[in-house]
Amino acid sequence: MSNQTMYFIIKGISSNPALQAPIFCLVLCIYIITVSGNMSILTLACLDKQLHNPMYFFLGNLSLLDISSITVTLHKILSTFISGNKLLPWHECIAQLYFFMALQCTELLILAVMSYDRYVAICYPLHYTMIMNFRVCAMLAVFCWVLGFIEVSPHTNILAKFSCYTSNEVNHFFCDVLPIMKLTCNDTSLLKLWIFTEGVFFSGLLPFSLTVFPYILILRTVLKMRSKTGKRKAFYTCSSHLTVVILLYLTLYCLYLAPTSDDVLESRKLFSLFNTAAVPLLNPIIYSLKNKDVKSAMRHQWTSFYSMISPYLSFVLQKKSKY
User: Which phi-psi region, left, alpha or beta, contains residue 190 (left: φ > 0; alpha: ψ -120 to 50)?
Assistant: First the structure.
């Protein structure tokens, strides 16, 4: 078959029929909680004035990325259970692969920018609002989104030209680059070279270096502080971001730099599920539980919402009492 008429069969997380319903329920719960949590962070960052600063502007971008990423990757598991259809057209598979890689690269860049934001806030607090003004933040965010979607285009372009496959069964729950590469009988040397040079160094090591280097400077500045309160506040400010960075890079390492033998395919799927589902789920929890501003904004918005609807509730209750 030509690429235009070819269909891939997405095998999913497990082929055991008895596990399909529990997997569906688990994935659905994770999806609902993740989308709700990230939408809450995104809404708070837009509505609450005390969160109108660069840190929460980039956190809103991170939440939008997490919502998009989990929707791109997990929608096939949910639709397969409802419809029973495991077939995915070739062009949809390539599109899913492209958007997943682009969103991952964009998230790594956003995390690097958030690291720079923390550096300016701690090392240059008096000049923070001048350096990280809205124009600069918007330009940095647009740069991350555009670069993230551009830098994975060569991978997708090379993969889209493959026309020979030994099988159409993808041993994964979505179309990822490594499972598709295992199926093709085309020469993958150019793709492997591009993934190693551009993917590992430019998309991986460069954002990692840009994320770690500001924290080295932050650590040097914090160690020079005489006040224990100032040190504690600086570490508290960075703890949420550092936790997210460590989780994401550890899962990406286990996914793409670990051995690619057939014996580790099942464990790779579990790491991929953690990367695509658990990390976006944990992000809003980490930022909300460890952040006083977010918890204060939640209380403020809830109080405002309750004060807005309380007259209507009292009116309804009075009407019911009359009857």
Answer: alpha
DSSP assignment, residue 277?
I
| Helix or strand run (H / E) with residue 186 | none
At a CB cut-off of 8 Å and minimum separation 6, what does 61 contact? 110, 141, 144, 145
Report the distance separating Cα 52 and Cα 45, nearest Å: 6
Burial 284-310 (b: 16+ CB within 10 A, else e): bebbbeebebbeebeebeeeeeeeeee
Phi first, then psi, for residue 37 (nearest 5°) are: -65, -45
Alpha helices in the chain (DSSP H): 20-47, 54-83, 90-123, 128-131, 134-151, 153-160, 177-183, 189-194, 206-224, 228-256, 265-273, 279-289, 292-322
Residue positions counted in the chain: 323
Residue 273 backbone dihedrals phi, psi, to 5 degrees = -65, -40
Q: Which residues of the chain have pLDDT under 50?
A: none
Q: Are 288 and 295 in contact (CB under 8 A)?
A: yes
What is the C-alpha to C-alpha distance for residues 147 and 286, in angstroms, rounded to an integer?
27
Choose among 249, 247, 144, 158: nearest CA to 195.
Answer: 158
Q: In whole angstroms, what is the distance from residue 101 CA to residue 177 CA?
A: 9
Pair 51, 295: CB distance under 8 Å: no
Query: Contact at 8 Å (CB) between 219 and 123?
Result: no
Q: pLDDT value at position 173?
A: 85
3-class DSSP assignment, residue 79: helix
Query: 94: closest CA among 25, 142, 153, 39?
Result: 153
Tokens 């009407």 -> residue: 319
Residue 157 CA from chain centroid, whole number: 23
Distance CA 322, CA 176 (A): 62
Q: Directed axis angle between helix 134-151 and helix 54-83, to 10°? A: 40
DSSP letter for 302, please: H
217 phi/psi in degrees, rounded to 5: -65, -35
